[in-house]
Amino acid sequence: MSEAVQDRQINRSAMQVSDEVAIDINNMNKWYGTFHVLRDINLTVNRGERIVICGPSGSGKSTLIRCINRLEEHQSGQIIVDGTELSSDLKNIDKIRSEVGMCFQHFNLFPHLTILENCTLAPIWVRKTPKKEAEATAMHFLEKVKIPDQANKYPGQLSGGQQQRVAIARSLCMKPRIMLFDEPTSALDPEMIKEVLDTMIELAEEGMTMLCVTHEMGFAQAVANRVIFMDQGQIVEQNEPHAFFNNPQSDRTKLFLSQILGH
Amino acid sequence: MSDTHAQTAPYVRESMIAQQPPPLKEAGAVKWVRENLFPTWLNGLMTLIAIYVVWVVLSHLVPWFVSPTWTATSLSNCREILAASGDAASKACWGVIRDRWEQLLFGFYPSEFYWRPTLALVVMLLGLGPVLFGNFPRWFMGFSLASPFLIFFLIWGGPIWLPIAVALGFVLGVFAFRALVGVNQIVGVIAAILVPVLYWLFVMGPLVDTLASIAPIGLESVRSNQLGGFLLSVVIGVSAIVLSLPLGIILALGRASDLFIVTKLSVGFIEIIRGVPLIVWLFTASLLLNYFLPPGTNFDLTLRVIIMVTLFSAAYIAEVVRGGLAAVPKGQYEGADSLGLSYWQSMQLIVLPQALKISIPGIVNTFIGLFKDTTLVLFIGLLDPLGLTNAIRASTDWNGVYWELFVFIGVLFFIACFSMGRYSLHLEKKLQRENR
Predict the structure, then answer these.
(1) Residue range B257-287, pLDDT digits in tens
(2) I want to staple B161 with a disulfide (CB 3.0 to 4.6 A). Which of A188, B211, B359, B390 is the partner?
(3) Within 13 Å, how many C-alpha atoms sit on residue A40's CB side?
(4) What is its main location (chain B) (predicted)?
């Protein structure tokens, strides 16, 4: 098990789950060509929930969260984010994308812009925030992820862990109500995984609604209030983390857990 | 070797070694010569042979160039000067350049107005400054936008109201776009194209006539067929370069688009334009284009050539930019999408800056080719520098002069193309971000 989060006290005071629904997915199906990637997904996420999605590679977990901000298009069923249904209406898509932050495995920072410009770009162009104000917000979040001194460097000059923290700050600058993480630590060295997970835990402590595709089971046990296990494009099992790890029900889950926790 | 070998015994390092400078080797010119020219006896031999070849070539060329004929007034005068100096060997006759350099630069432009194209060149260089180097005050950009109209006015003359009225069309387009983009983006774009076109077709002509009769301010008009020489090459080359870059980018985006019709139209345009030689397009411009235009419109030949050369180079630029677009990682598009940027925003702010940076060498390469290809207008009867050499030889004074003129023209083109190449290197260096 990852040691990255073991020695940390989690402040649970603000980690409240409300009754309000943030994301509602009903009977959602997706195909890549003829390949049925996501099969009949039903998932409701309440505001303030922190969900970890795990599963073997190719199980469709990344595709699932990429459908939530329409980086992938679903072919049938319904995805409702913050009360807005995802359809091919571009206005709805842009609205949802500006409300939902996303962090990628390979960061996807813009290499031709400085860290500060990376963070202020979307607020200035999408939210029409004045430049000064956007820069102040960006510095606030860069301080939060503990790299304000790198603001005027370019992404290529930063380490992987720093780049991922910038990516998180960049998403936060849009003041999203939901954060999606697509394997945020998979491309990082062990020393850098900790600094990124610390940032994510802080975010959880502030009550952010989070969906994380990750194999950091330590993180899942520390902050998640639900763990979802996917295989072959389906949700195979979901439970609160303690029960999920200590008392898995399905054989597939047991096998998966024994493989990733076994050594 | 130290006693405690890390591989053979348990070993703990007690102190970390600080960075140390590399060992000082012998430096200086002797080392450079030995390493670069004579590292082995075979390489040394090659060096000597190479030096010999260079010497042979130069020893034949330089005497031709060094020739006391600058003051000659005709080819026979040249021969007299050379014979008088006791030099029987064949040498250049530079008198033709001194006598005709103005014609090579300006063609048959009226000589009392040479200051106008010269001033236009200054305006062009000043106008390009902020575009090329980007660290000028902001108001200077306004000058850059106005400079094409100013250059047009200086070179062609006529009433000053014509370029102002044409520029007004662009301003109207911007206003129409601003006013209607709120309604719908596509309506805005259509209005931005339709309003100026209608204005140019129906309103501008009477407007210019009225203004010219009220306030007849202007320069003496110079007809297009009086333009020639290097002036013509620069006018065609620079206009085509400036116009073909945005057009090429739009074509590249069209080709990469998800919209079926847009993609096919772009591909069709690019392939047809690329698949036919430029010279054929130039003949089309000079002969055929008038059939397609409404009767009565007498479209200026220079303008038609500029349009053709622009379309031709835009097709090439589009393919170069497409390569750049393909090289931008998919993650960049997704990063931009996930932040809620619209298609045009993500292209303008994220994708194109990176794609164009990758494409710089190819784009400049295309522009250099385009600039040299402007000499092809010779075949449709425009007097580019090469065309003028025929005109110069037609005079009895200089009948038989070839190389001197070609060398002069070659040097002019080399200066222009070499500057473009250097600028491309400068830009690549300036935009180098990753490993700085």
Answers:
(1) 888 999 999 999 999 999 999 999 998 888 8
(2) B211
(3) 1
(4) membrane
